[in-house]
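Forwarding the complex inputs:
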Amino acid sequence: MSIQSINVRNQFRGKIKEIIEGSVVSEVDVDTPHGIVTSVITTRSIRELGLKPGVEVLALVKATEVSIAKI
Amino acid sequence: MSIQSINVRNQFRGKIKEIIEGSVVSEVDVDTPHGIVTSVITTRSIRELGLKPGVEVLALVKATEVSIAKI
Amino acid sequence: MSIQSINVRNQFRGKIKEIIEGSVVSEVDVDTPHGIVTSVITTRSIRELGLKPGVEVLALVKATEVSIAKI
Amino acid sequence: MSIQSINVRNQFRGKIKEIIEGSVVSEVDVDTPHGIVTSVITTRSIRELGLKPGVEVLALVKATEVSIAKI
Amino acid sequence: MSIQSINVRNQFRGKIKEIIEGSVVSEVDVDTPHGIVTSVITTRSIRELGLKPGVEVLALVKATEVSIAKI
Amino acid sequence: MSIQSINVRNQFRGKIKEIIEGSVVSEVDVDTPHGIVTSVITTRSIRELGLKPGVEVLALVKATEVSIAKI
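Prediction (whole assembly, six chains):
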């Protein structure tokens, strides 16, 4: 089922640069204009979505998950 | 206490563009070189950190909070 | 931009039953075949997605956010 | 210590169908009336709670962790 | 329904010190031996659980939600 | 880049007691004056931050991630 739009405000478009595959979860590094965005998702999802280096994806982050630090 | 470094892999540097203040939580929109990053934090933190438009901040996201969508 | 598929393993399809709107975040109650699923998202997203009672949606939950309790 | 009730609004009751055990975290698939609900928790918790296929559990999700997509 | 035990590894027992109630979410400050632990939950849950200052509670945090900073 | 302060309200100071290293994520157990706080972060972060038993750290938790249970 295709999704039209999602409430997730923070969307970073890019290409997968690298996947570090573990038995349960895997790290997905996405090359975006913001720099590398790193995600940890289940290894099952990696397989079901057919993710591999070069695939174009959106990295999505809910606003309630974003912290703010003063520098 | 100053923090030397943090495990959070996804760090987006920018200036606060706008704050929508609520009684308990507030929305903070951070203007980064590659677009707005939106955060929802407690209104108490807004006050304690002295956040307001123009202040330079880091928006931080833990890798386990990032979802991946195929487009 | 339409999303083809997403890594989020837990997807609950239903119709919005009620929205409790706050100044910054809002509660969205989704009526699914097996009970209400409740979400808190930014009020901006409510407006941008045109969410209101009766609209068909997917409630999505990342596997790393699910806790397990023994009963 | 027994918990009387919890603020977590989204509670899915079911039986564990499968556990994929990793060295640090494990995937727990719970068979609920909503379909399979997938959780990733520490492998230590799996052992301490005595989780295994067939055990009855609650899968719990905080409302702030639920995203909404339009379909 | 009473919960026997939960996978959430981080449990902080204490008494509610203060509740700042908003229309959708509320802040709950719990006085624990670790100091004040702050939680943001739905205002509906505050009412359904009968939370108010003085009530004894557990503040619960999933291990995947904890970040580590070097100082 | 040093961080001056962070919005994360819940900060637990302690020394790392144990690290269980996995291929993608690792468990970090922090010994604080009031008990162990457990975190799951990427194994890459463990290496980049030079985390090991005995190192002094802050365990940080965003208020929106804290659940409340009645006991």
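Chain E touches chain D at residues 1-9, 25, 40-42, 44-46, 48-49, 51, 58, 60, 62-64 (CB under 8 Å).
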